[in-house]
């Protein structure tokens, strides 16, 4: 009897791959709205340009591989990669930076391994890390959020396009370090003083970032409601990050890495938990494995943020655990149907 050789993710009935991808795209809307409100239209320009280049690279690869364009482009997987990368990049990033990122994600991280379902690493995060290591200045130049600057200084849609394509003087846009970077570089002020003297902080986390994280949390809850993924990986990641930050929070000294609320509502925490860690292709398979996988990512995020060189460590933590996912699967295999557990069998 011959079996069909089909790689993960497996979907049945109305929950097809294309429908799952469209739900993921829709779930990014609250976070994108928050990013646009606080940082201007730069992220929307990122996403639109990344989508165009990702579809172009996907079509090129499919053409070279002699695959039907309409069938594979309609699954929206290239668009999801483009959205995730565009959201992760600084607003209104240079057009060539986005093109390099989408080209690497689609051609190298996805199609070179055989297409969707065969890639061992998350394409968007692999591309993000490549860009961060290769072009650190462009990747760490974040625009100042609403509240730190006047609303009139935020990039409008036209200015965002001009900045993306190098037609706007960079001096015309106000930039500043991210809240995670400010805490990372602090070695003199108590957290309370740093919070009151720096314009980058809001109520619980980074100014604007707390609402961005709430937006992606809302989108993640929607995906949970639609049963696009289970709660095991995202919840275990957030719990592990909160526990680690609580264990090493010293009350707010100058050496403090930040409170649990600060880590949960700053940077790409919620975006990573619900849109990156839940990737069905590169994560662990069983529910128990997903809990281990997510918890280790949460612990790694804190370790890299507190003692590593990169303030927002979600991409690095995810890629490291992509390496370990097969190992986790090996030791967290569920009980075979029809067999009792070993302990029960001995009794």
Automatic annotation (TrEMBL):
InterPro entries: NqrB/RnfD (IPR004338), RnfD_bac (IPR011303). The modification FMN phosphoryl threonine is found at residue 178. It comes from the Bacteria. It is found in: Cell inner membrane. Keywords: Cell inner membrane, Cell membrane, Electron transport, Flavoprotein, FMN, Membrane, Phosphoprotein, Translocase, Transmembrane, Transmembrane helix, Transport. The complex is composed of six subunits: RnfA, RnfB, RnfC, RnfD, RnfE and RnfG. It is an enzyme of class 7 (translocase). Belongs to the NqrB/RnfD family. This is Ion-translocating oxidoreductase complex subunit D. The chain crosses the membrane at residues 20-38, 69-89, 201-224, 231-249, 261-278, 290-307, 313-332. It is a multi-pass membrane protein. Part of a membrane-bound complex that couples electron transfer with translocation of ions across the membrane. One of its GO terms (cellular component) is plasma membrane. The keyword Cell inner membrane applies. Its cofactor is FMN. Its EC number is 7.-.-.-. GO terms for biological process: electron transport chain; transmembrane transport. The gene is rsxD.
